[in-house]
Task: structure prediction
Amino acid sequence: MERVVTVVPEDGLHARPAAKFVETAGTYDATVTVKPADGDRSAVAADSMLAVTGLGVKGGDDVVLTAEGSDAEAALDALEAILSKAVTE
Amino acid sequence: MSRTLNGIGATPRRGVGAAVWVDRTDGAVDSDGTPREEKAPESPEAALDRFEAARDAGVTELEAESERTAERVGESEAEVFDAHKQFLLDPTIEASVEEAIDTGKSAEAAVRAAFAEPIAQFEEMDGMMAERADDLRDVRDRLLRLLSGATRADLSTLPSGTVVLADRLTPSDTVQLDPEVIAGVVTARGGRTSHAAIIARSLGIPAVVGVGEALFEIDDGVTLAVDGTAGTVLVDPDDEAIEAYSENTAAAAIDDAVETADGTPIEVAANLGSSAAAAAAIDAGADGVGLFRTEFLFLDREEPPSEDEQYEAYHEVCAAFEDRCASSGGHVIVRTADIGGDKPIDYLDLDSVENGFLGARGIRLSLEEHAGLFKTQIRALCRVAAEAVGEHLAVMFPLVSTVEELDAAIDLVDAAVAELNAEGIDAAAPELGVMIETPASVMLADAFADRVDFLSIGTNDLTQYVLAAQRDLDRMDSYHDPLAPAVLRAIDQTVQASGDAWVGMCGEMAGDPALTALLVGLGIDELSMSAVTIPDVKRAVRDIDRTEAEALAADVLACETRGDVRSAIGLE
Result:
């Protein structure tokens, strides 16, 4: 299961948005990966703060999310919601 | 015999007290993370158990620190702890630690090895990414401390009058410091904009950072006088210095308007980043608001704020200051959205270069692609101006560099009033002003002054643009000095050209009590600053003899080097 999402938070995938994203990815059984839509970076584990911040994704960039597992769709929904909000709660 | 250590002033306050070292990694790890002594061998199972226990304890600590920071400092300052928690729980790190332990390494050696590569990788990247290396070091050092079994140095129970010394303070250390008892903070490393420096500043704790190796020669118990304005630390100060430094720490607020010893009134106002900050500024004795930054209304959301929402925010701050402004004659100066530069806003789709410091930012965006946003803001402001609470409201425009821009902005204000009145809504044009931030605005100050009621010198940007030295580049730090002769002459030129308009100042420089006499001597009528420095500046104003201050300004303007300026002011 794959989905392309635009990263809305201005800081991109750094600091708080990244922490929230990684924490949420870790709560699902599904194996989730993320990579920038542009360029040829390979996908990384969405539950790794190191890997996710290491992508250097900026606000306004598109990312490709993939999920494999029983709750894959729910995981993608939750992660898309985080990336689509300027403020994470 | 007293001597002086030089660093970077992080909180413009002074304090004196006894040195206490709190650096937890002191002696255990070199700055590059190399162990000075290896742990005794242990079984891989034991090492893994210790690692997991340390990690779990780290998570518990970080959650508590995040909560405490959110409560005492702010939600955004607490974010760093959430990020640290995710780094601590990172599966990649866990896997590397387990692998290293399997090859027979101690838990400590495994943690160092697991962090070494990611730290090096982040260090090679630019800007924000490089800061992640600092975060990783903090997380690694936390694990190492927990592994060593040491209980965390509890900085919240240090005795009154302590000057905290550290190689580098983490945000978690800093937030534990109680501003009521801690006389100062001095670190060997770290910059003015490090997390720790920012938190120390918001707590109002005198702080000097980046003192360097010399700090390690100071032993526990030595008396230190910390000057967070000059960025200096006096070791073993004499009684006179101790008295001078002690006075400043407990500066009581002066609620009344102040004037110089010979009767020139000087408005001392607060820079506010949100309406919520108004109460603290009033407590600190602010006569008004010299800079109400409106960007907070536009940040951290998905679409721009409505006219009504903005009206509420401006109304709230005017109402909070209504009585104070009435008694002090102060103003509530709202700066229209200063977007771009280092303040990007996601839903506006700004570019870091196109809308950077030399790109379309401030009034340029307001008159062009974001004219709609500007018009909404102006309408909200004109509505408040028509009300009783709006009597002291003033509005200023950021980054104006041509007369055409200013004329266009003034026309938009007039048009908004006419439009609102036509809709049957009460509206009035507030007092108007221009920020003096660019060399162009200094050169055109006379033309601006003919058109508006006041000029407000933004020294942070003025310094950046006069010296062509970008604010957020570490490399340019030494250039970014408002005491550079070129900047001081630009300030003087502005005052000389100001005619009937009054002149305010709202950069960091305005909040430095050591410079108050100079600024009054240069002819500045209003000084606006972080609330924390208001009592000190009000006190400084009362000591000023106008004639002496003008002579000082003349001496300083004749200086050709920064060194001469500093000696003329008596800073060194």
In short: Chain A has one domain: 2-83. The first helix of chain A runs from residue 15 to 25. The beta strands of chain A are 2-6, 31-36, 44-45, 62-68.
